[in-house]
Every structure is written in structure tokens, then in C-alpha cells.
Amino acid sequence: MSDNPLIPLPPAAEEDLVRRLQARDESAMTLFYDRYSAALYGVIFRIVKAEDEAEDVLQEALVKIWNAFASYDPNKGRLFTWVLNICRNLSIDKIRSRQHRVGSKTTGLDDSLTAQRQAAPTAFRPEHIGLQEITQKLIPEQRQIIDMLYFEGFTQSEVAEELNIPLGTVKTRARTAIKVLSKLIR
Amino acid sequence: MENIQDYIESGILEQYALGELSAAEQAAVEAQAASHPEIRAELEQVQAALGFYAEAHAITPPAAMRERVLNNVLAQISGPAATSSLRADVDAVAQTASRPVASAPQPVAANEAVVRPLSAAPVEVPASRSGWAIAASVALLLSLGGNMLLYSNWKSASSELVALQNEQARFATTSQVVEKKLGALQQENQVLRNDEFRAVALAGTKTAPTAHARVLFNPATHKVYVDVRSLPVLPADKQYQLWALDKGKPIDAGVLTVATATGEGLQHMKDIASAQTFAMTVEPAGGSAGPTLSTMTVVGNI
């Protein structure tokens, strides 16, 4: 798995970074930025869909990662997973607070969904080999569900409601999609 | 747990990885993962799959963002400690600056030391009034002077910090370049130490008798590397091109970069299935479909 160019960091290098962050080595943040900023910025940008806000969220996330580092437990999972979740949560909070300002929650969700469907083609970058492979292997229904769950902050039941399909179908599609993705890693 | 497979198929691990669960539910999943290796493996797979999906959507942020974000982050994470110690310094200096002259009983801060004598003045004997005023003015001046000094120290400290941060950023870039070079060298070393590679010496022809190069050819994997010892320098619009001759038929093995032609290191060329001879000719930049035999510079048989 370590020779896959899409996996950002070999475990040994990740361990070294974790040790330095645990030792409160501020210079490790530069290294962290160089290693992870593209992946994190990509996810944040897909969720908030505005460059200036994505930059704010990335900055906020880096400060949070530094301040909350004591709560990261390497035994529970990889550093990359942990920081991805922090970035996703901050981004989703951001769009939720934005929707809150605009109006009631339901119309906010509807708006964001249509916005997402329109935004998808421009955000799609076929030159990225990993993404191209994914679009070939995932059927559109699976990709839509994964995008809603991962980039829109929907829960599985919210997806079921939004797309008007049974919850069981959402679960099956999400599981199948994730299976397809994990096969692509190998 | 009666049935691990049911648990896995319930979709709860996906919910966990997507962050849909409450803190209590999360803790329950973590406990299951800790006691059942199968569940843990499945969870890791789900997380890796989502990480892969995220990574596939990577966007390199604008270059200008790096310094902006890193400077802000570093200022914030080292900020609180630096400010509070600075505040303590200011207080300490203000205290020592005002103490000898004003000799106020509790000069907690410069302002207090200045204000107290003035407001206390009317109660005092009129004659000492001007004495207090002078003392207060001197205290104020000293305190202002102290503040100026601190301010200029602080300014130069913060510009030094920015300079250091820039230097650090440059250092990080340099070390990346070095890492990349090291990677290339390791790869070269692997080729050089691999017994499967056959070294083919290419000697200079009449046009360039001192020219000398080597080709490393692996007949099993068809990999070809070229290693230049000495070749005449070419004008900018010309490039050396390597050819493999298989039963007399020339096959293009690619053109040499300027770095390779000046002997900087090995260059990985096009794969060649079979060859008995390698040769290099001078061709227009970008290479030619067939060799210009009159420009043949080096040649050698396997």
C-alpha cells in the first residue's frame, strides 16, 4: 500500500510527524502543511465551495490540530484519518452556519444540494488519475451518495429522505461504493 | 458479540467513519474494534477507502497561501505564551522604572504610579505639591521611555521572527529537493548494483574520438539506462539520440537531456526488447524518426 502514490505518507514518516507534533515541535507544522495541505484543501474546498472560506477553514483546522493533538490516539487510526475528520467537521459546521444565516434549515439543505449538483462538473478534474479511475468504477448513484455523505455532511437517513429512497438502499449503496474504493487502493 | 459479520454489515462502521455517530456510539464502535480484529480490519479498510476518496480530490492550494496560512497558524499556536510573557516584562520594567522616583507604596502598573500621587496631592502640604508633580512627571517620562524601548524591541523581535520563518520555509523546500535527489540516486544505485543489467561500452567514432558513454541494458525487463562519461557539447537546437540496433535495424531509444549529456547522472531511456548494438547520433532537438548516420558519435556492441 505504501507504493501507492495516492496514499500521502508512508507509515514511518507519519509516525515521525506524530512524534514531533506530540513533542510540540512547531516546525513540524510546516512539514505537515507540505504533506497534507493539498488533500485537506481539496476536501475543504469541495465542502465550502469558496476559496477564501476554504483558506480560513484550513487555517482554523491547522490550529485545532495543533491544540487538540493530545486527543489524537495513534492506536485508534491513522493521523490522516483524524485530520481529515477535523477538516470535514469544521467545513460542514461552516456551511451549516451559513445556511442558518440564509434561512430555515430545510430550504438551506435544498439550496445546497442544487448548488452542489451544479458545482460538480467544474469541481471535477479528469486529469487526476485517481479520480478518473474512481469515476470509471463507481456508478453515478453510488458516487452521488458518497458525495452527499462525505462532502455535504448528510446523514444516511437525510440522504434517504432527500433522494426519496429507502434507508436500506442508501446503506447498501454506501457500503458497495466504499468496497469499490478500497479495492482501488490495492 | 454473537455475529461479527452482522455487525459489519449493519453499516455502523461506515457511519462511524463518516462521523454520523454520537460520542457514546463512537465509543461503542471503538470498543468493538479493539476486541475484534475483524471489525478493526474492516473499519481500517473503510477509513482508508474514504481517505483515498478524499486524496483523489486533492487540490494544491495557491502558492501564496502557504506562507499566509503558516504564518497565521504559527502566530496563533505560539501566540498566547509570547504575549503573556511580554506583558509580564512590560509590567516588570514599568515597575522598576517608576519605583525609585515616585516611591509610591504599591506601584502595580505605571499608570497607577503616575495617577496616585496627583490625586493624593491636594491632601498634602501645598509646598510638597510641586515636588510630587515633578516626581510624577519624571515617572511618566521614564515609563514612556521604557515603553518606547519595549515597543522597538518587540518590533525587531517580530521582524526577526518573520525572517526566521521565511528561512525555515526555505529550508523545508531545500530538504524536499535533497530528498528527491536522494531518491533518484537510490534508484541509480539499484540499477548499477543489479546483476541483470549489462554494461555496454560505447566508444567514440572518427567524428569524436574522445567521446565515451555506457548503456545499461536489462534483457529480461527491457529497461535501458544511459550513462555519459564525455560527449562533445551540442548547440541548443541539437540533442543526442540513442538507438538500439536489432539485427541491423535501428530502434529509437529516446533523446538525452542536457543534464545526461553533460554526465550528471543516469537517464532512464525507452524500453528495448532486443538489441546487439547501441549507438548515439546528433539529431535536431526532440529527436528524429531515423538516425542520421553521418553524425554517429559513439557506438558499442553488447
TrEMBL record, chain B:
Keywords: Cell membrane, Membrane, Transmembrane, Transmembrane helix. This is Regulator of SigK. It is a single-pass membrane protein. It is found in: Cell membrane; Membrane. PANTHER family: ANTI-SIGMA-K FACTOR RSKA. The lineage of its organism: Bacteria, Pseudomonadati, Bacteroidota, Cytophagia, Cytophagales. It comes from Hymenobacter negativus. It comes from the Bacteria. Pfam families: RskA_C. Residues 133-296 form the Anti-sigma K factor RskA C-terminal domain. Its main location: membrane. The keyword Metal-binding does not apply. Signal peptide: none annotated.
